[in-house]
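Colleagues,

Please find the record for the two-part complex below.
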Amino acid sequence: MRTIPRRATGRRYRGVSLAAALLALTAACGAEGGPALVAEDVWARAAVVGPAPAAPPDTAAHGGAHNGAHGGMAAAGGVNSAVYLVLENRRAAPDRLMGVRTDAARAAEIHLSQVDERGVMRMRQVEGGLEIPARGEVALRPGGYHIMLIGLAHTLEPGERVPLTLSFEHGGELSVEAEVRAQ
Amino acid sequence: MNRTVRWALLAMLLLVTAASVWTLQRLRPTPPLHGNVLEPPMEAFNFELSSAAGPVRLGDYRGKLVVLFFGYTFCPDVCPTTMLRLRDALQQLSPAERRAVQVAMITVDPKRDTPERMRTYAASFDPSFAGLSGTPGEIGLVAAKYGIYHQAQKGSDATTYLVDHTASTFVLDREGRLRLIWPHAITGEQMAEDLAQLLDE
């Protein structure tokens, strides 16, 4: 605790509240108990979910991906999109992003895209969570890590905000809003 | 030497200088094309696939530059990025140049990507973009002819399966010959430069 020099009586209370403000600020800046995880520049790719073409009744009921040519948008798994962000970990210990929940899609998973030296693109779900280094950050950007939104519930219009809940191994949960961008 | 000769020499010098400058200008190398440049150009496989509006042959596009991308609509990251860059590239061309370029996306996931789905997907980036599908056999043949690797991979319950695939883009000239293979990392600006150059030929 910093020592605030004692001044004339009238200024003493101001000194105390200044100390309190400084203490609060220190706590918010990463000491144990402050916000450990911060999400920045959270955005989602715009996507259009069209009306599902008329499908035979049995395929509509199935909803799986094995319906072949007549499944239509919904039965074929729908339309997907991706969310990108930068995650900062202010704690002295590493953490992991374990999962994502949202009402905007049927499911959300953490994926990594990689293009190898032959030009082959592979996308894989990240198993065991995505590590965020101690006092560091991890960036989810196009062509790399991303949160895949699987089976969008509705069209994502540019400018719209999509609520998401991120779950961490140690840091609890963080509610964020992704800004939909046309890029 | 007398005056006439001196003037004549001066005139000749000027003429030679002018001729050299003109020649050097003409011989100035054009900026290199990006990606893998096929020299000599290769004959491109004349596929026949399905669009939502009916069958489409590569030959239908003869007279335009053709930009072929192999991807699938289920992929939310790499494929949209390429399509967006292609859209940006086209926007950097003049309207006349734009009309002379045909972008077509061919699915590597024919089981899920019907011709209808491909049309909606492609058109969502630009109304001129074509989306093509076919039977697994037809797609397999086209992919093999273009050297496109594609392999379904088991995913989660939610994604069921994902498809690994070559993420390169193929550029054919107006005579239907394969000229360029762009890597995934190419920018929209580089694409626009290459397209403009090929249109100038």
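Chain B touches chain A at residues 73-78, 80-81, 84, 111-112, 114, 116-117, 120, 124, 149, 153, 155-162, 164-168, 183-185 (CB under 8 Å).

Comments are welcome before we finalize the supplementary table.
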